[in-house]
Here is the input.
Amino acid sequence: MKEGRGTGDLKALKLQRGRKAVLFNLACNMAEAQIARRANEEELKKRLEALSTALESFLEINDDYVEKVQEVEEIEETEEYATRLTARHVSTIKAIQEAIKLKSACCSASETEGKPVSLASRRDGS
Here is the structure.
């Protein structure tokens, strides 16, 4: 009877892990959509936080799952699964940071566009 309960707990953890992975992937998809529609910097920064929270939530339940798994193959699959999600997290974070960087550069360039540039500061070597 104890084994049945353990199996049930393991199945429940696997389902929770799957749900957390879905939420994480949705957060990544939303980030990609925000980048594509050129969301403002504040929205992108909030998405960075949401992504990190979603990944942490997945990794936490994944760790609980790994602690209860007995089969080596299942442990390996679980580690690969976490590695794939972590890699997606890294690539999505980089894409968001690049979008923020481009927005900052774009805004800086548009602020000086059309304004006369003084060369006086360049004459003294600065």
